[in-house]
């Protein structure tokens, strides 16, 4: 570790207690180990469909949980496992959802892309890029209308910002002065294309003025700074009813999904970004600034690995949903069309 890196590390953790930094590290590590276990399960054929991992972005979810108050909402993309773990969802239920089991967060019908845990403030988990922004604005409008004092935090990737519904939802939020924070997790590549090839102005927060928003933009290198700056935006929404557009410059260390080999970037680039991985920087701070013994850190890691391995063992053994469960939460009631020819409407084969 060179002198400049160490000086920056000490400045970032100045005033932070050993207990708080250990807590942040532990919670980031829980997400990292959950996602690594998910990747292993995927390669064994235990998880169907797409799997988008949050490896590298964990500090964002942890900071978000720390600035939320009871009743606040997170509306997110399909890369949402980290938010579920950070907000307190049971890893067993999360793993079971990935496996399509009845014990999953939503009974196994949502899978990786549709996590949902209303009790803990996670309102999805949306797979259609950019289309959840008006939904989030609707949540914020409900808070404004009822006066419940709650704030909605709406997350999207950099690839979503050119989608029509994003503009529509942000326009509504700006006009109505809704208690909402729009957060762009700019992990550099959307699905696989560098941002400079898709946006004429790479600073996404340049758009904020057109909506009447406040704005903030910074590299995510620690939970502490992310918590402080997201907290300012949340407080602005709660107290003043003014939306904020926040661009968090971050990096995903895996491909867009498990099916993406990420050949559009070089190993040297990934290695450079690893120097600012919040998880690794926090580990370095614990060792060098707080003098936490290796044995203590190793024991913490072993405990977390056991927790996450246990969650996936539970998911593997859990039962699949009952056949009739496929008709749960369907709006129409009554006999289904496969019942007999007599129950089918005219013209339905």
UniProtKB/TrEMBL annotation:
Keywords: Oxidoreductase, Thiamine pyrophosphate. GO terms for biological process: pyruvate decarboxylation to acetyl-CoA. Residues 27-324 form the Dehydrogenase E1 component domain. One of its GO terms (molecular function) is pyruvate dehydrogenase (acetyl-transferring) activity. Pfam families: E1_dh. Signal peptide: none annotated. Its cofactor is thiamine diphosphate. It comes from the Bacteria. This is Thiamine pyrophosphate-dependent enzyme. It comes from Nannocystis pusilla.
